[in-house]
Amino acid sequence: MPAPLFQASHLRKRYGDTTVVDDLSFEIAPGECLGVIGPNGAGKTTTIRMCLGLTTPDGGHIEALGGLRMPQDARAIKAQLGVVSQFDSLDPDFSCAENLIVYARYFGIGQRAMAPQVPRLLEFAALSHKADAKPGDLSGGMRRRLSLARALVNDPKLLMLDEPTTGLDPQARHLMWERLQRLLQEGKSILLTTHFMDEAERLCSRLLVLDHGRKIAEGRPRDLIAQHLEPHVVEVYGNNAHGSAQALAESPLKELAARVETSGETTFFYTQDARPLLDALTRHDGLRTFHRPANLEDLFLKLTGRQIREDG
Length: 312
What we know:
The protein is of the alpha/beta class and 312 residues long. The chain has helices spanning 44-51, 74-78, 96-104, 111-114, 118-124, 140-150, 170-185, 197-203, 221-228, 241-249, 274-281, 296-304, and strands spanning 6-15, 18-28, 33-37, 59-64, 68-70, 81-84, 158-162, 189-193, 206-211, 214-219, 232-238, 259-263, 266-271, 287-293.
């Protein structure tokens, strides 16, 4: 196996009495997309900031790109990274093309060297027709794609993306996913934080699940689903959904479901075999059922809970 492109070992970070990242270790292989998921306050953004040298860890170390260490070799590491932050940082006074040219200067790439690359990057971002437009004239999806194109000006080996599709409509998200998949096919590596479970399952080779700053699970998406969940989920909603769940839990029918959870007006039955459960539920008037395979959202909720976390 090739050596990891990026490796974090036993990272720790505290703010006052609060431990934000607690003994976190992970690595990223060449050509791999590692997804980091977890509820608000799980430590995702702090982890990204430590990986970028923006926050100094209280313990542990980071090694990247052939033996370089963070923060000692921060400049050399950053020269080979591409970053798309959670919020746009495009210069509103420059056109799309000028944003790319000016940003390249941070990497020592002058206008003469960068100018021939601009059409290729704008084409990649599906913004060739917007070369002279300013960011304020672009849609949210266009601005995110321009941010991604800007992150590629130095031809980075590793991209770090912090919730890159937050706030985008479905069409814009799918176009962003297509561009990220193209980068993976070209051999780029990606560290991705996201709140979208379909995004994580679509893009990520492996997932890191964080909660309260600790790693609580790690592996390939389908492997994690198989390891932690029953294969079938039956959602039940309609009149007296709560009463039906209670009746099932107190009757011999409970053996048809390994777990039963209720959230709002929907009850979730997790089972190895859905057919007997579906047949039994047809005898309850006024209920509607939806049978589907277990997915990453089920995994996320099982491992981190259904309670809403506030930002912080």
